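User: I'm writing a tutorial on reading structure tokens. Could you give me a worked example: one chain, its sequence, then its tokens, then a sentence or two explaining what the tokens reveal?
Assistant: Sure. Here is the example chain.
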Amino acid sequence: MPWSPRAVLLRDLVLGILGTLAFLIDLGADLWAASQYVLSGRYLWAALVLALLGLASVALQLFSWIWLHSDISSPLAPKPPGRHLALLHLLQLGYLYRCVQGLQQGLLVWRQEAPSEFDLAYADFLSLDISMLRLFETFLETTPQLTLVLAIILQSGSAEYYQWVSICTSFVGISWALLDYHRALRTCLPAKLLLGPGASVIYFLWNLLLLWPRVLVVALFSALFPRYVALHFLGLWLVFLFWVWLQGTDFMPGPHSEWLYRATVATILYFSWFNVAEGHTRGRATIHLVFLLNDSLLLVVAWATQSAWLPSGRLLQSLLPAAGVCFLLGLALRLAYYCWLHPSRRWEPDQVDGTWGLHSLEERQLLQNRRMAHLAKNFFPKARDEAVLPWKGEMNGILKAGSDPARET
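And here are its predicted structure tokens:
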């Protein structure tokens, strides 16, 4: 039976609380691991953990600040407390501020017997940004942290209890971010094209099953060649950055901030597939998959031909075949998803970086999250609404009524 509106609001509120708790627990586990490394005299490992935390946090604060700074210029968006906004982001609390703001708005609409359309739209607007930031945090911090802890275990041949905690929290964080991101993409679809929970499960499984072998082989390479893994990452990151630039992304409100987005996407592509542009999606996804598979095979060959001995050699003999099985299963689920679970109708009009046709005419008078709608259009290139009319105006991440978009450009 379909869920009642209040049950859906309560479910979203609970999911928001759990997502925030998962982020805090993962953060606590990483800080705990760093403190244990310091106490045991492994200062380099502690520095690497803290460096990954710091770099990812700074990137998240920049994304959050840029989006908030552009969104508050719209008369449709309730303005956050401006005098505290910069301080919160300087203190690396911008993402948590967004989580609290989203929970407050979710609680507000749930407590109302008949919440207004604007309150509902604003709750969706906030949750979509949080989902996007959570995905960025997953590939900028959680996935590299998981790779690092696996490399440490492979190199040392043993795992401490706090490392197992870090691995578990990382897997929970990655899993949650993937599921939440797909749920957010579904929110941007027309009502008649909403995907069922089975599609989200398959999407989650094929992403996780393809991600796990990649993380393992990168961790193996890091354990064998700790001095060269940074060069390997930098070389591939530059290739992916150039590839993303060639696709002409237009996600951020300004040309300078767009490079932050491209650099983040290049990091995601080092581990997993992420679509950033319309047209020829299948071809680009195939190229990326073959490229990443060949690179992973080269890393495995480097281990097989390396004379250096790792204490975890026997463990690897069982882990690598399991990783191969995971890859094949993930590839099969990915093909099944795109063959049977993806929307099948086309967008109209087919315009790059546009968000027209995502919602009904009535919804276009409300607050809309252009950023996530743009990604949903790239992810669901064949989906469209039955009623297709151009948006009446656009202001950075917010869509509004009242002007001609052709004049805006």
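What the tokens reveal: The CA atoms of residues 22 and 172 lie 7 Å apart. The beta strands are 394-395, 398-399.
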